[in-house]
Amino acid sequence: MAVAGFVWLRGDAVKLARAERGELRQSVVASGRVRTPQRIEVAAQITGRVIAVEVPEGATLTPGQIMLRLDDSELKAGVAQARATLTQNEVRLRQVGELGLPVAEQSLRQAEATATQARKQFERVGELVAKGFYSAAQLDDARRGRDVADSQWRSAQLQVASNRPDGGDARVARGNVDQARAALAVAAARLAYATLRAPVAATVLTRAVEPGDTAQPGKLLLTLAPTGDTELTVQIDEKNLGLLTLGQPALASADAYPGERFKAVVSYIAPSVDAQRGSVEIRLRVPQPPGYLKHEMTVSIDIESARRAQAIIAPFDSVREANGPQPWIMVVRDGRTQRQPVRLGVRGAGKVEILDGIADGEALVPAAVTLPEGRKVRALDR
Known about the structure:
The chain is of the alpha+beta class. It has four helices and 22 strands.
């Protein structure tokens, strides 16, 4: 009986925790993947046999770098034919200006002289017929000669007009030249399609073609990741959505290099929730990506959602009804237990900020220990 009374006087021995002042960091932890802002899927624009693939998977490309070549022998022949047709039409246009017009003008002068002479001859024959020296048949012959000469003169005039720079022949010749130039441009463009070049600085992600394959329009040959900001994408449980804002800092590590950590920043929060998974897509920008990061690599991400420099911190396992409307802690004051309602703040790894109710250094009874209020307790020696 004396021993029991002694224990009662000293109180129950309990392993107590302590509230303390310090820095507390709250974070959201999840797994995600490395991604580039976009992908470029490379396909040929014409059908052709692949004769060379110049880049392997993982290659770093500069803008304009040759990636793949198709057989272009037929296309080169088409360019040569189009160029020859253009040359012919350019020569024809020069002939119209340099030869056709002078010849037509000379023919016009001859036709004009012939017409003048035929008109004079008709007038003389008419006078002689009136005097009885020539017959009416001779006058008819002179009239026909005059009409033929006039017709040839008018034809020569039309020929000169047609060969002038604004004339019909010149316009037709210029149209033929323009058409031939367009045909050459089309042939040259098709020839260019036989050489596939990198549109931007990029990295080759996948290669689905080998020499000897037949490339067809729309058939995927290469997949490129353009050089640009590296991003991390992760699905966050929707219950943590209220903890996230744009611009929050984060630390990430690739599963392949767990000892290496790099910085990231929250840059995108999806405006909607995936109803099937109950998650929200989050993207983080990596300002200085380490060289070992690869597309689709798995990463672990620790997003800092809050930080308190001088907080009153208690072990989370000392808080009772932590998710209820009124959490509380069994605190030891003057050697006896006392139920103390508290107001919680930032939650960290196994710890929680106490905004109100507990002071720095106070002893706390773990929630796993069941004791009534007012019970005398003493700290269990470790």
